[in-house]
Amino acid sequence: MLVVAWNPGELQKTSLPACHALFQFFVAEDRLSLMMYQRSCDLLLGVPFNMAEYALLLYLIAREVKLQAHEFIHVLGDAHLYRTHTEAAREQLEREPYAAPRLWLDPSVRSVDDAVARYREILARATRGEAPGPLLDGFAKLEKYQYHPPIKAKMAV
After folding, report:
1. Is 88 contained in some domain?
2. What is the set of active-site residues?
């Protein structure tokens, strides 16, 4: 299955075309993999988030279709580091990585429809002016997630 993540007919309505342009699922034996092509890659701010969101998508879809999540393959097109991010990138590279966390998915969220219902609950809370909570509020979390203090960097648009 190949999914194009942006609509060229609506480019005039956007500030930029989608950076993550397309993704493809493929199956080998009982394992599901996902390859994502990212046409423009902000290495400091965008790429880490895009990697996390597509890895999560792989796990959610694998569970939906009753396959094992296998590989996330990330193809970078125009990979770049903005000049204003140079010091922040150096600071990031000097840090010692922590052990990888484990992904936990709420066993009661068994389908994409269940996930959409959870997102709608979160959006409804935000619309009512309530604190929406974490985006994955209760349906996914990283166990044993350790992190360093934040590094400040401005998003380039």
Report:
1. yes
2. 19
